[in-house]
């Protein structure tokens, strides 16, 4: 009986509290998450245009609404009433389904993100999270991967070469950067001891993983930008090469769904990065120490979560306004030859450090020796990587960046064939005029008659 009472008095876990939510509260959370995704999309579109305009010394949107902040809403209404044009060569079923496949998983990923601790909503104790799954991290990765199928199917179903090229690029891109993104989560899961997003946030009460696992954090941020097809990794769109990329043949609400999916994915992965590396909804250190953790209770953590999320969203805008688009070979080289090998080396180091820390037989001196040997091995491996050099006797002149120049005999002629013919004609006429003048100056004495009775000129003709 005593053990039964002790079990009854134990606090409920996060998953148990969320599983006990009534249906009406679940519906409120679903509507709130959907509205948050749509509002953040409208805000991000306008914020991006204003920030990039400020970087380029322009004004940006300033007509619709207060200081132009309703411009994205007006654009959305315009898209809703725009004429829809469907290519005759399109596969209509897949063409209609692709934008839905792209947008739906983006909203599904919101369900496992914890926005705050336990609060009271209309008299019900609940967490500011829709559901806490034991594999919440994998849900976000799966939703991000499934969303790419919408891009691939949209490009294929359009029946046009440029969208098809964009969709093929997207397939290669998600394979390359999904691996780096998944490997960067290994160290976080290892230190947190769980795949639950709520448990990962709770594990960072002693310190954020962004500081403890800095290489994983850097690789995750780079892979996150590549996963969302944003500049400088926006190769599936590539307006300067592929007209508009995978959505070239889309218009009206279907184009708006692709647009919505892109920005919702940015918001989701920004919130995912906050959850994994920046302590989730917990307040930063100076604020968290005020009032014995008062600002980590109630509805305050929602403010910290959104503020941290906006930092990553600003990073997206900053990169777009600063960096040019990568070449495709540079993009693939970064994913396969830099991010993935660096991730594997970092995982081995983290696993070794964890094994040494958990072992009671290893002394502090042995730990220092192990660290020095690991650093020495990394330096030696970096020295063994052959440097790419251009052979001097190859006969191919190169620029300063190591790229070959085109053949130097392919020079543009100074004159077109027509201009050259006209110039030759003018020289011939000048020579004829000079010859005619000389013959006139010689008079009749300079002329004779040949056997045919015609006059022949003595001078130079």
TrEMBL record:
Subcellular location: Cell membrane; Membrane
Bias kind Low complexity: ranges: 435-451
Membrane topology type: Multi-pass membrane protein
Alphabetized UniProt keyword annotations: Cell membrane, Membrane, NAD, Oxidoreductase, Quinone, Translocase, Transmembrane, Transmembrane helix, Ubiquinone
Keyword hit for Transmembrane: yes
Transmembrane segments: 23-45, 94-113, 133-153, 174-194, 206-225, 255-278, 298-318, 338-356, 368-385
Catalyzed reactions: a quinone + NADH + 5 H(+)(in) = a quinol + NAD(+) + 4 H(+)(out)
Stored PANTHER family: NADH DEHYDROGENASE SUBUNIT 1 (PTHR11432), NADH-UBIQUINONE OXIDOREDUCTASE CHAIN 1 (PTHR11432:SF3)
Family note: Belongs to the complex I subunit 1 family.
Record's subunit section: NDH-1 is composed of 14 different subunits. Subunits NuoA, H, J, K, L, M, N constitute the membrane sector of the complex.
Its biological purpose: NDH-1 shuttles electrons from NADH, via FMN and iron-sulfur (Fe-S) centers, to quinones in the respiratory chain. The immediate electron acceptor for the enzyme in this species is believed to be ubiquinone. Couples the redox reaction to proton translocation (for every two electrons transferred, four hydrogen ions are translocated across the cytoplasmic membrane), and thus conserves the redox energy in a proton gradient. This subunit may bind ubiquinone.
UniProt protein name: NADH-quinone oxidoreductase subunit H
Protein species of origin: Haloechinothrix halophila YIM 93223
Lineage: Bacteria, Bacillati, Actinomycetota, Actinomycetes, Pseudonocardiales
Gene that specifies this protein: nuoH
